[in-house]
């Protein structure tokens, strides 16, 4: 699609921590909707850089820099291929991991700034209404109240959270894609925005704060939905009092998976949305060590929930996640239970935290789990042990 695919030819320098390659031409291929396919083809203008590129840049983290009077572009990535011989002056390609373009309309002090980011699909923020067509307004997604035909009320699907720098607003936006034949496709694209104003705004500091806040929210949303949720494309618009300022585009490479629809989260989306700010607040209130331990457990959970992977991989990661959570919940009691079976530790941890484990494992009886005569475990432990023993 020509509206979302961007191709640029840039002249600048490549560098790693130890080396710098001047006077190279890059053909950059970007796509705001396909963050896994961004790349840059590298061409040698001097005819002397091919072997240096192969020797000093292959497999390294590489940064490209381009600068003009009113524009700055930087991107980073890893060399994915190299080419020594051939009729072309192309010497290799990079997978672009991060790309940013700043366009300076002027350099006066900034007083307003807005940030908008595209997100991978989120069940709790998806559009709830069907498409309809209005003879005056065109393509719509329905009204909230049709009882007053003269002035129907518009229904918003946006959901906002107040943060220390402004209101974080999640909503199911639209993207219009036009192909080479002029055919236009309309697709849903989950977006999030945050805007703020002030005197002499430091846009770089504000960008860092906005993205840190967003990523904390996405981390908790990922946990609630059992899916990796990322932002991968962003637009920044910052203006001075005369209406001009800085416009930026930011691209980020991310892994992508096709998750299945989750009917349970969809049915209880409001409850999940209401949980988000409380969990973010509690997450940020943890000590650095506790947060690190929890992050490890959440990552195991998310890996276990990835689609289209072997069931034994899922079970091992689920079990690992539970094991990490038990250590967090047990705290100082962990060493006393070092030689205790997993199922017993799980029961004790649930009881201490007032978690009704019997609702989750209705087939298991407490007296059997703690019996020295009856061999009883939760099935997830039995399956895991059997898989490990058979390898």
Describe the structure.
It is a single chain. The protein is an alpha+beta fold and 391 residues long. 30% of the residues lie in helices and 33% in strands. The protein has helices at 50-56, 203-225, 263-267, 269-285, 288-304, 311-330, 342-352, 357-360, 366-369, 379-389, and strands spanning 5-15, 20-31, 39-44, 61-67, 71-82, 90-104, 112-119, 132-134, 138-140, 143-145, 153-154, 159-162, 167-178, 184-197, 231-239, 245-252. The strands form 3 sheets. Strands 1-2-3-6-5-4 form a 6-stranded antiparallel beta barrel. The chain is globular.
Poorly predicted regions? none
Q: How can the largest sheet be summarized? A: 6 strands, antiparallel, barrel
Count of helix runs: 10
* Global outline: globular
Q: Termini distance?
A: 48 Å
Overall SS class? alpha+beta
- How much strand? 25-35%
Average pLDDT metric: 86
Regarding quaternary structure, how should these chains be classified?
Answer: single chain
- Helicity, in percent? 25-40%
Q: H/E series, N to C?
A: EEEHEEEEEEEEEEEHEEHHHHHHHH
Number of strands: 16
Please give the order of strands in the largest beta sheet.
1-2-3-6-5-4
In short:
By secondary structure, the chain is of the alpha+beta class. Helix content is 30%, strand content 33%.
